[in-house]
Request: fold
Amino acid sequence: MSELAYTRFELVRTFRNFRLLVFTLGFPLLLYVAVAAPNRDEPDFGGSGISIPLYFMVSLVAFGTMTALISTGGRIASERTNGWTRQLRITPLTVRAYFRAKVLTGYAMALLSIALLYASGAAFGVSLSVGRWLGMTGLILVGLLPFAALGVLLGHLLTADTIGPATGGIVSLLALVSGAWFPLSENGLLYEVAQFLPSYWLVQASHVSLGGAGWTAASWAVIGGWTLALALLARIAYRRDTERV
Reply:
């Protein structure tokens, strides 16, 4: 099986998964409409200087895209359980090609979630220049790298039965402590902890839309550090898993 054929197979299979589409695409979109529609004229949410439609558009993009990337672990865990990964190892498909297909599929889901929420944001009055839309999107896509590695890691640590609740719990907790649902006070413990979480900087991508710098050098270090650490752990988990087979 070639890498192109396998990637195409992954995309088709993923977009036929109705439950995954509902939770990754439908739930964030419905939640956004429920919050933004009655508050479309609120220009300053919680003293953040950001309108409610913009704040929750980016927040729910963070929530939905984190779900999309981490959900790759669910497919890996399922394939480990039913023996599909063992079958793939006797094909010409390389390990790198296998994981690239998983990550690319996760990013495809993430991009669709972003497009839907951006369209909804525009419908509720979010108006930005092309440069700011692109700058914000670029930061979000970079900020998802640690979650791509986390999905692979969880896929090799958990079973098909346990990874669903674990994924939902992790994403919900990260959204809560990273300011997705409310602006964090800059003098509290939660704010200090959030500075070291990649999920926090996904939410902070909205600052680009206001003409701000978006991320600092420390922000990039947090994203890079988490990506490297989780990728290393994912590699170790994969090797241990294959050794047991």
